[in-house]
Amino acid sequence: MGPSNIFPPSASLKYSMVVLAILFAAVLVFPEQALAKNAGITRNYKFNIKMQNVTRLCQTKSIVTVNGQFPGPRIIAREGDHLLIKVVNHVKYNMTIHWHGIRQLRSGWADGPAYITQCPIQTGHSYVYNFTVTGQRGTLFWHAHISWLRATVYGPIVILPKKHVPYPFPQPHKEVPIIFGEWWKTDTEKLISQALQTGGAPNVSDAYTINGLPGPSYNCSAKDTFKLKVKPGKTYLLRMINAALNDELFFSIANHTLTVVETDAVYVKPFKTKVVLITPGQTTNVLLKVKSKAPNANFLIAARPYATGPAAFDNTTTGGILEYEQPASSASKNRTRKLTLLKPALPRFNDTNFATKFSNQIRSLATAKFPVNVPKKVDRRFFFTVGLGLNPCPKNQTCQGPNNTMLAASINNVSFVQPNVSLLQSHFFNKSKGVYTTDFPANPPFKFNYTGTPPKNLMVNSGTKVVSLPFNCRVEVVMQDTSIIAAESHPLHLHGFNFFVVGQGFGNFDPNKDPAKFNLVDPAERNTVGVPSGGWVAIRFLADNPGVWFMHCHLEVHTSWGLKMAWLVMDGKGPKQKLQPPPSDLPKC
Ligand SMILES: *[C@@H]1O[C@H](CO)[C@@H](O)[C@H](O)[C@H]1NC(C)=O
Ligand SMILES: *[C@@H]1O[C@H](CO)[C@@H](O)[C@H](O)[C@H]1NC(C)=O
Ligand SMILES: *[C@@H]1O[C@H](CO)[C@@H](O)[C@H](O)[C@H]1NC(C)=O
Ligand SMILES: *[C@@H]1O[C@H](CO)[C@@H](O)[C@H](O)[C@H]1NC(C)=O
Ligand SMILES: *[C@@H]1O[C@H](CO)[C@@H](O)[C@H](O)[C@H]1NC(C)=O
Ligand SMILES: *[C@@H]1O[C@H](CO)[C@@H](O)[C@H](O)[C@H]1NC(C)=O
Ligand SMILES: *[C@@H]1O[C@H](CO)[C@@H](O)[C@H](O)[C@H]1NC(C)=O
Ligand SMILES: *[C@@H]1O[C@H](CO)[C@@H](O)[C@H](O)[C@H]1NC(C)=O
Ligand SMILES: *[C@@H]1O[C@H](CO)[C@@H](O)[C@H](O)[C@H]1NC(C)=O
Ligand SMILES: *[C@@H]1O[C@H](CO)[C@@H](O)[C@H](O)[C@H]1NC(C)=O
Ligand SMILES: *[C@@H]1O[C@H](CO)[C@@H](O)[C@H](O)[C@H]1NC(C)=O
Ligand SMILES: *[C@@H]1O[C@H](CO)[C@@H](O)[C@H](O)[C@H]1NC(C)=O
Ligand SMILES: [Cu+2]
Questions:
Q1: 403, β-bridge pairs
Q2: Parallel, antiparallel or unpaired: strands 138-144 and 154-160
Q3: Residue 182 pLDDT greater than 80, yes or no
Q4: Class of residue 336 by CB neighbours under 10 A (exposed 0-12, middle 13-18, buried 19+)
Q5: In this protein, which residues make up the domain named Plastocyanin-like (predicted)?
Q6: CA distance readout (Å), 504 to 136, 326, 412, 519, 530
Q7: Domains of the chain (ranges, CATH numbers)
Q8: Residues 150, 66: contact at Cβ < 8 Å?
Q9: Ligand 12 and 587: CB distance under 6 A
Q10: Which residues make Cβ contacts (< 8 Å) with residue 424, sequence separation at least 6?
Q11: Which residue, of 122, 309, 336, 349, is most buried by count of CB atoms within 10 Å of its CB?
């Protein structure tokens, strides 16, 4: 029996996150069947995809939700558990759900990106996502993986360590998810479909949210503010998730220091910081040790963007409030007194220096219990340019991209064209002809000064191309930002694997000098990494998971423009090295 059956649906959406935060402590004493020490249990969840009216920023809007909740329900499991999540689609949109960061060992059919590993779940249909959480513990999240529906369809995944296995840091008093989102007053499905027709950039969002709530900096939103009530002297584990569509975020709590202990469900060497940078697709666990005595103040919890491109961005700030439980005596005496609200200092919107320093601090634990399995040798090397580009305007139309073009984005100048059947099915049933080709280029079509003056012709090529890899191939990918249209940070997300961030730098990657500086000792292990604006990042992974694995920018607007590709990992020879056949309820196109 899964937690979904135990946690009652919360009556009030507005308070649901607060309620969940309180219930969260109960998870740690959650009754489980007595089973062999390492055998996981099966947890069942039901996700009814349905419309729900939600009011934010003084406007009521009908949004797509899971079970009417916004943000959606929390998935809780322990390392080793099996998950069966039945998704039933009651809305007019096609739907898929992605379990972001879950490795999906040999269970690629449950990964979720539309037309990559499955056809969408159509209106009135359902699909059971069936997978096991193997070798992972920490915070991840789930979200819709079709069009822009993840704007409102997202929620946390909390993976606790196996029973009786402690964290490699002090046990927190409480654990609290902090999930960032992005809110538009307008219908986001209309927004992106119009933008893709006109070729222009879609309008930026109207607000950011913390656990679905914009907070006091927005018009008529003071009542929609996330509150974190703390007991003096205690330590809290904040499970932070950036589920925003298009914006990397700086996060800080006034007058408090945070200790980063985990990123993308991998423990890291703890380090202290006032500010956290979190890109869309990343998750970060931090310990918050609060002051030992309740101060006479409240503290703003704030997040606002890190933005590097020239494009317009939502430059607003979302806020929550950290409140101390006051001692009973003072509370009664001072009940009516309004505490001052202290505000944190956040880096400037374009503070790339901070971004670089922050990401360099993230290091794997590299202990006997949590070793770093970074490939020391490499079988296949790839050099990928990532960035924007243009498509010509169709005849008879005027377009809103620069000089009457359409904005596009690409990897190695290939702008990915979404097929109309799923790549994984086409691969499994040997029906790739006319769906995809395996000639995705290992290098850009021509060399230029990637971060200098762009070439004259900015037009992209288009195609549905993948890279085919043998099982257990050791892969290195250098991702190089380009200044085409403009240099910009791109958070690249890889499905099906964690990778190791072995190096990064500014300007053009130098294949002769830079590899000597790679960190093969304690590199960060994660599923999403920011390609530095005007720079490069080098990652390595072991292709030990057969299937078709999407890799894309987690800024949804760039994905929509084609900044995506897929890796096709072949079966290995061993019996446990093969992709399983598809489940019988796999949706059809
Ligand atoms: C949302 O509000 C509209 C207009 O008031 C109403 O017609 C509709 O039934 C509501 N939808 C839901 C799911 O409550
Ligand atoms: C889930 O997948 C496992 C492994 O493939 C399989 O044994 C099991 O029967 C599946 N469960 C359901 C309910 O489909
Ligand atoms: C985008 O914003 C402009 C200016 O605020 C507005 O006129 C337009 O209607 C918006 N477009 C959409 C699709 O919401
Ligand atoms: C703020 O909301 C009020 C309604 O509560 C509205 O009258 C006012 O125009 C709004 N202001 C802005 C700047 O949107
Ligand atoms: C907040 O921090 C400032 C600067 O460090 C300090 O002067 C002030 O006393 C702090 N206030 C509280 C209530 O902790
Ligand atoms: C946000 O952007 C708007 C429009 O570009 C600008 O007027 C405003 O000053 C900016 N606000 C902040 C806090 O930078
Ligand atoms: C109660 O409020 C008064 C006046 O603001 C302040 O001087 C006093 O320190 C407060 N007492 C406590 C226990 O915080
Ligand atoms: C950041 O923005 C400020 C003002 O908006 C500008 O003066 C500065 O040059 C920018 N810094 C970088 C590194 O782009
Ligand atoms: C393009 O415009 C011409 C003349 O206005 C018209 O005859 C033709 O049908 C249009 N073609 C398309 C594809 O809209
Ligand atoms: C648009 O055209 C102008 C004039 O030909 C040129 O200077 C500019 O670089 C072009 N912009 C883009 C993004 O191609
Ligand atoms: C590339 O362009 C940058 C920025 O204009 C410049 O500083 C750098 O020297 C150029 N590199 C090469 C190899 O030309
Ligand atoms: C939903 O998915 C099916 C199968 O791929 C497709 O035929 C249909 O056009 C899609 N509907 C919408 C509204 O996108
Ligand atoms: Cu991007």
A1: none
A2: antiparallel
A3: yes
A4: exposed
A5: 49-163, 175-326, 440-571
A6: 25, 46, 19, 10, 10
A7: 37-160 (2.60.40.420), 174-360 (2.60.40.420), 380-577 (2.60.40.420)
A8: no
A9: no
A10: 108, 109, 116, 117, 118, 547, 548
A11: 309
Q: Cα separation of 530 and 357, whole Å?
A: 13
Tokens of 188: 């986001």
- Residue 505 DSSP SS3: strand
Checking if the pLDDT of 442 tops 90, the result is yes
Q: How far apart are CA 98 and CA 154, in angstroms?
A: 9
Task: Pick the residue whose CA is nearest to atom 8 on ligand 10.
Answer: 403
* Residue 363 in tokens: 């290091």
User: Of the bound ligands, which one is closest to the alpha carbon of residue 485?
Assistant: 10
Phi, psi of 3 (to 5 degrees): -60, -25
Please give all residues whose CB falls under 5 A of ion ligand 13, grouped by chain where several chains appear: 490, 553, 555, 558
Q: What is the DSSP letter of 263?
A: E
Task: Retrieve residue 237's tokens.
Answer: 């584990």
296 C-beta closer than 6 A to ligand 7: yes
DSSP code at position 417: P
Contact predicate 390/401, CB 8 Å: yes
- Give the residue from 314, 316, 248, 313 showing the smallest Cα distance to 280: 248
Query: Which residue from 291, 298, 326, 334 has its CB within 8 A of the most atoms of ligand 7, so it is best to mutate?
Result: 334
The answer to whether 120 and 96 are in contact (CB under 8 A) is yes
What are the E-state strand segments in 290-325?
A: 297-306, 318-324
Whether the CB-CB separation of 169 and 286 falls below 8 Å is answered with no
Beta strands (DSSP E) in 187-282 are 207-210, 226-230, 235-242, 248-253, 258-263, 266-273, 275-278
Across the range 223-228, mean pLDDT stands at: 97
**Rounded to whole angstroms, how far apart are CA atoms 562 and 485?**
15
Q: Which two tokens stand for residue 360?
A: 């360099």
Say what the pTM is.
0.92
Q: Which residues contact 506 (CB under 8 A, 6 or more apart)?
A: 451, 532, 534, 535, 536
Q: Dihedral (C-alpha) 549, 580, 100, 189: value to the nearest 10 degrees?
A: 70
Predicted confidence (pLDDT) per residue in 33-59, tens digit: 434 456 799 999 999 999 999 999 999
Here the tokens at position 552 are 């894309």
222 Cβ closer than 6 Å to some ligand 4 atom: no
Pairing status of strand 75-78 against strand 154-160: parallel
